[in-house]
Design brief:
This protein is α+β, with helices and mostly antiparallel strands and 347 residues long. It has 12 helices and 14 strands.
């Protein structure tokens, strides 16, 4: 059975990497106790090659928020006015001629239900389209100013609505720094890297910190300033080996109170451009029993993917963790499709 499962996984990965869109990649699949384990690299990458986590970094930010929640150092009901001055918040959320900027809470950010727009994907000169052309640094206050130029999508906490926007997690990162009185990198180190003994995972802060190249279609681009600007929403570097350690700890209750985490069950479907993805308390949920799979799957994938081709998911029904990277910024759906295929066809 194990050999057959490995052959299936290998076949799926080989088919994925045979695409002209993929120039390099890595896949690592394992069950909780590790007696089933499969890994394979492509294009010179392996389990210990540095990879850009991109939005999987949001799971690190979520970890810190939940750890601080457990310690009673913040509440998800806290308003953003507890952490930011009125000048910064003013005008960030005006919808239907009403201002909601001062009503936003931590929960709105964590669950992606603030309604705030996403400067990475939206606007005539979106951060993504600009990053493809040039490397540039953006401060947090500059990111907020860009958000204010775009229109929110709905009033906060509108029933059944969620909208994926990096600013939600950029703000959570700032809040973590204010609550802990340290840098975000230090908070990640305290709540994640040190407890799990992760030695190859880091949040780049300095010019000499190594940042991998990213592929956009056939072009390899180097964007250290863009990555260092992304911080809490997408700036971390790791390896597939260490990402697996983190994912098991995240869903296994090693980093924060698992009961607390399991109480945060609400999730809402994201905007249509995000396909079948729902968003829960700081992580993606992808149901496998819907129209997208012609109702042929069961259960759901839980975790996160990144816009550069990174992925980290847990499939509870088969007790499988799958992490890796396809390093392709030109098609954000690739890691989602691979993860869904692995979950649905692996016995």
């Amino acid at each position: 059975m194990t050999t057959k499962r490995m052959q299936t996984i290998e076949k799926i990965f080989n088919k994925t990497t045979s695409s002209k869109q993929i120039h390099e990649g890595v896949l690592f699949v394992e069950n909780t106790i590790g007696n089933f384990s499969y890994s394979k690299g492509y294009g010179g990458k392996d389990m210990d090659s540095p990879m850009l986590m991109a939005s999987i970094t949001k799971l690190f930010t979520t970890t810190c928020i939940l750890a601080l929640l457990e310690k009673g150092e913040l509440s998800l009901d806290d308003r953003l006015t507890n952490y930011f001055d009125n000048e910064l918040l003013s005008g960030i959320h005006v919808y239907g001629s009403r201002e909601y900027s001062f009503d936003l809470t931590l929960s709105d950010l964590l669950f992606q239900i603030s309604g705030l727009p996403d400067v990475f994907e939206e606007g005539t000169n979106s951060a993504k389209s600009r990053a493809i052309e040039e490397d540039y640094y953006t401060t947090f206050s500059e990111q907020v100013a860009l958000v204010k130029k775009l229109r929110p999508h709905f009033a906060p906490r509108t029933k059944g609505k969620a909208y994926y926007a990096d600013i939600n997690f950029d703000m959570l990162g700032e809040i973590i720094e204010k609550v802990t009185n340290t840098t975000l990198a230090e908070a990640y180190k305290k709540y994640i890297f040190e407890p799990l003994t992760l030695e190859s995972t880091y949040l780049p802060e300095h010019e000499n910190d190594f940042i991998p190249n990213i592929y956009y279609k056939d072009k390899s681009i180097y964007r250290p300033k863009v990555i260092r600007s992304s911080r809490a929403s997408g700036g971390c570097i790791t390896t597939a080996r260490e990402l697996m350690i983190f994912m098991k700890a995240f869903f296994g209750g090693k980093l924060f109170n698992k009961e607390l985490f399991e109480q945060l069950t609400a999730s809402n479907k994201l905007q249509a451009t995000m396909g079948p993805i729902f968003y829960g308390s700081g992580y993606m949920r992808i149901p496998l029993d819907g129209l997208i799979t012609l109702f042929m799957g069961k259960g759901e994938l839980m975790g996160h993917s990144g816009s550069t081709g990174s992925f980290a998911f847990y499939y509870p029904i088969k007790d499988l963790f799958m992490v890796g990277d396809l390093n392709q910024m030109g098609n954000a759906a690739l890691p989602i499709r691979l993860s869904m295929r692995l979950a649905m066809t692996t016995k």
